[in-house]
Hints:
This protein is α/β, with parallel strands linked by helices. It has helices spanning 9-13, 22-34, 46-52, 86-96, 124-131, 162-173, 202-212, 228-233, 245-250, 262-270, and strands at 3-7, 38-40, 62-64, 69-71, 78-81, 104-109, 112-118, 139-142, 152-160, 178-184, 191-197, 217-222, 236-240, 253-255. The strands form three sheets. A six-stranded mixed sheet has the order 8-7-6-9-11-10. A five-stranded parallel sheet has the order 2-1-12-13-14. Strands 3-4-5 form a three-stranded antiparallel sheet, with helices on one face.
Amino acid sequence: MKTLYVTDLDGTLLNTNDRISEKSLGILHALSERGILFTYATARSFSSASVVTKGLTVNLPVIVYNGAFLVDSGTGERISSLGFTAEEAGFVRSIFEQTPVSPLVYAFVDEAERVSWDTTRENEGIRRYLSNRTGDRRLRPLSGSEGLYDGNIFYYTCIGEREDLLPLYEIFSGDGRFRCTLQQELYRTEYWCEIMPSKATKAEAIRSLKNMYSCDRVVSFGDAVNDLPMFALSDECYAVANAVPELMAAATGVIGSNEEDGVAVWLEQHADIFN
């Protein structure tokens, strides 16, 4: 049986310092040398993921933006991507224009990947997001809403209080054209509401990888509710000990926490190797 192993990053493979421990890096490098079919699936962009996974060897494409993009792990080139139609993007804009929430808008503007936001409507959560991305060439600050919805949009992120984001979640999660998640930020008080094309899921991207590499089965690892579709697709799925209760309930089993190198230790003990 040829197995594809897929892990989430934040709260799963990454520790509370948003890094992969030296122990996990050592184990995963050794397994990569032996031929494990291993990759990650994250809500992060490839740019952001590359920073926090520094030193990690991944020989397969990686899944970013919660499945919106499948990216070559070596070159950063997009293998596949999903975006909103003009009609869908127009509908999303009309909703935002009726609410007090101002989003981070991810789009290709003049063929370059950009993250646009209105600097006059920043909150603490957005400022923290930006502080962790100093020097990121994608950032496109705007003094007002003009130009905020330019380009070919593929993702929206809203950061704020749960009560402010819940109405957005209720609108978009009930509309079949979209996929929407609402969850509390790791180690923080604010919430994130993320809006994606309906087919942008980790599960769909994993299905593509499974077919691409002719794998017989999938084993996945996660910690949060956005990992539920990935778990549903998997033949085996493991929640780290720090995972949310909903994910633990859906898991094949519970492994060590992200501070205990749970994913790497499990793989070292159980992974199938293909040379």
